[in-house]
Amino acid sequence: MKSSKHLHIMIAVITVLFGEIYLRPFYTDFRFSLGVCAYGILLLLYDSSLKTVAVTGLSILIFRIWLALNLSLPFDVNFQKKCD
Q1: Would you put residue 12 in left (φ > 0), alpha (ψ -120 to 50) or beta?
Q2: In contact, 18 and 33? CB cutoff 8 Å
């Protein structure tokens, strides 16, 4: 399938938004993000080029930095919270 600039951005935005939805299947500290599921499905359906992967990765990083700045949290603390 032919890729376009809008398709890369659409996949990145959907992944970033779904990445903020967490599921805790065992009612413990273990959780996973729906962003991983959405990203995998979108790559299978539309585009799996290296450019899509790079745009999505940078979008997630930029969004988390923006979120940390707007919540007045240091970036390293916010990053640790997301990775736990």
Answers
A1: alpha
A2: yes
Question: Which DSSP helix (H) or strand (E) runs through 45?
Answer: helix 34-45
Chain position carrying tokens 């032919």? 2
Give the residue among 15, 14, 11 at the shortest CA–CA distance from 49.
11
The pair of structure tokens assigned to 5 is 């600039």
Tell me how far apart the alpha carbons of residues 61 and 47 are, in angstroms, rounded to a whole number.
21
Q: List pLDDT tens digits, range 2-59.
A: 557 788 999 999 999 999 898 988 888 888 899 999 999 999 998 778 998 999 999 9
Let me know: does 3 contact 52? Beta carbons within 8 Å.
yes
Helix axis angle for 75-83 and 50-70, nearest 10°, is: 120
